[in-house]
Amino acid sequence: MDAFSTPDLTDAAPASRAIELQFNSYGGVTRFAGPAVTIKCHEDNSLVKACVGEPGEGRVIVVDGGGSLRRALLGDMLAEQAARNGWAGLVIYGAIRDVDEIGNTALGVAALGTTPLKTEKLGVGQRDVPVSLGGVTIVPGEYVYADNNGVIVSAESLL
């Protein structure tokens, strides 16, 4: 992937939208981008688990976990599977766990925070639906760009 910075991309493409949340970078890759696959779930990562098991093809999984920090929507085993299957990264409006292991995984991971608690797996949630977080609605297929400055979204590729 071409090197980029989200500030440079927003300067060059004023129609891009910045998610107004303070994400932390946890993955072994700190800059990632790709078309969005969206998941909306609350304290249940069943759909995340199913998604990372599919071919990623350089896409980014955007998980709307409602901002909950009570249960981790991603752990080291799912992160490793995502990396193996070719996902560029995950943007998680919620918590993750196993941060030391995820930091050694060749995957971009931006999340709000951490917790040691895993989720229930009840199969609850929605996939490939518009999700809204931090003042931005993300439609499946839109382009997501993440680095240490933040996360931006664009209807068209900026690279």
TrEMBL record:
<protein>
    <recommendedName>
        <fullName>4-hydroxy-4-methyl-2-oxoglutarate aldolase</fullName>
        <ecNumber>4.1.1.112</ecNumber>
        <ecNumber>4.1.3.17</ecNumber>
    </recommendedName>
</protein>
<dbReference type="Pfam" id="PF03737">
    <property type="entry name" value="RraA-like"/>
</dbReference>
<dbReference type="GO" id="GO:0008948">
    <property type="term" value="F:oxaloacetate decarboxylase activity"/>
</dbReference>
<keyword id="KW-0460">Magnesium</keyword>
<keyword id="KW-0479">Metal-binding</keyword>
<comment type="similarity">
    <text>Belongs to the class II aldolase/RraA-like family.</text>
</comment>
<dbReference type="GO" id="GO:0046872">
    <property type="term" value="F:metal ion binding"/>
</dbReference>
<dbReference type="GO" id="GO:0008428">
    <property type="term" value="F:ribonuclease inhibitor activity"/>
</dbReference>
<feature type="binding site">
    <location>
        <position position="98"/>
    </location>
    <ligand>
        <name>Mg(2+)</name>
    </ligand>
</feature>
<comment type="subunit">
    <text>Homotrimer.</text>
</comment>
<dbReference type="GO" id="GO:0047443">
    <property type="term" value="F:4-hydroxy-4-methyl-2-oxoglutarate aldolase activity"/>
</dbReference>
<feature type="binding site">
    <location>
        <position position="97"/>
    </location>
    <ligand>
        <name>substrate</name>
    </ligand>
</feature>
<keyword id="KW-0456">Lyase</keyword>
<comment type="function">
    <text>Catalyzes the aldol cleavage of 4-hydroxy-4-methyl-2-oxoglutarate (HMG) into 2 molecules of pyruvate. Also contains a secondary oxaloacetate (OAA) decarboxylase activity due to the common pyruvate enolate transition state formed following C-C bond cleavage in the retro-aldol and decarboxylation reactions.</text>
</comment>
<feature type="binding site">
    <location>
        <begin position="75"/>
        <end position="78"/>
    </location>
    <ligand>
        <name>substrate</name>
    </ligand>
</feature>
<dbReference type="GO" id="GO:0051252">
    <property type="term" value="P:regulation of RNA metabolic process"/>
</dbReference>
<dbReference type="InterPro" id="IPR036704">
    <property type="entry name" value="RraA/RraA-like_sf"/>
</dbReference>
<dbReference type="InterPro" id="IPR005493">
    <property type="entry name" value="RraA/RraA-like"/>
</dbReference>
<dbReference type="InterPro" id="IPR010203">
    <property type="entry name" value="RraA"/>
</dbReference>
